[in-house]
Automatic annotation (TrEMBL):
Claim: Nucleotidyltransferase is one of the keywords in the record: no
Domain Tyr recombinase intervals: 2-51
Protein name: Integrase
Coiled coil: none
The keyword Nucleotide-binding is assigned to this record: no
InterPro entries attached to this UniProt entry: DNA_brk_join_enz, Integrase-like_cat_sf, Integrase_catalytic
Signal peptide per UniProt: none
Length: 64
């Protein structure tokens, strides 16, 4: 990662980012929770920022 000029990122960060992006793009909560191996209530609690704000993390990342 250092050689490629990338910041340190954990696998957990990638997983969380993927969950946020899927929800931001309108993928149903049940589909995202299944992909992540969680029950929908857990996914809703962890990703409530994506569900409530309606701001796409993908758009925020592409703006930089």
């Amino acid at each position: 990662m250092k050689k490629a000029g990338l910041h340190h990122i954990r696998i957990h960060d990638l997983r969380h980012g993927m969950g946020s992006i899927l929800l931001d793009n309108g993928i149903p909560l049940t589909a995202v929770s299944g992909t992540l191996g969680q029950v929908p209530a857990t996914t809703a609690g962890v990703y409530d920022h994506s569900l409530r704000k309606g701001k796409s993390i993908a758009n925020l990342l592409s703006a930089n």
